[in-house]
Amino acid sequence: MNRGNNAYQYDYNATQEEYIIPEEKIEEKRIILTELRRKKEDKKTKRNIIVGITILVMMGLTVAFRYASVTQINYENHKLEQEYQQKTAVVQNLQVDIESNMNIAEIAEIAETKLGMHKPFSYQIKYIDVETPDQTEYKNTEFTKEENNDDIPFVKRLFKDIKQFFGVI
Fold first, then answer.
1. Other CB atoms closer than 10 Å to residue 45's CB: what's the count?
2. Full-model pTM
3. Could you give phi then psi for residue 71, rounded to 5 degrees?
4. Which residues contact 20 (CB under 8 A, 6 or more apart)?
5. Could you tell me which residue, 73 or 137, shows the higher pLDDT?
6. Which helix (H) or strand (E) holds 13?
7. Which residues, 6+ apart, have CB-to-CB distance to 47 below 8 Å?
8. What is the structure's pLDDT at 50?
């Protein structure tokens, strides 16, 4: 029995000069070592599980963040599309207004009231004859008969071409 002392009770055999460790003490030591090994392995397993769960949570948060980013971009895109459609509608309305304001009667009224313009009286209208005569002129033009090169012998044609080349005609 152990009385406040944690040391093993060794039996000393004086004849053999060695310490003899009782079998139950050896068995107890094996149980303690096995238990310590198991606790160490349990700690390792728990640490691996915690690391794995942490990685999974981080991956989940990353995916959630990406989905949130995509949702925000889609929301902004939808908002910009609505704004574009509104501006397109305003442009179309303005084009319709411009086309409707192009009424000839309204233009004439504005010209008479604001600009002081009026239609010309009959004595103010002059008619001009704009018939154009044929103005084609022939100056220093000489019409000659072209010679057919097939009728001229080869040597004469060659001398004629050489004279034309040197400018001696």
1. 10
2. 0.37
3. -65, -40
4. 10, 11, 12, 13
5. 73
6. strand 11-13
7. none
8. 95
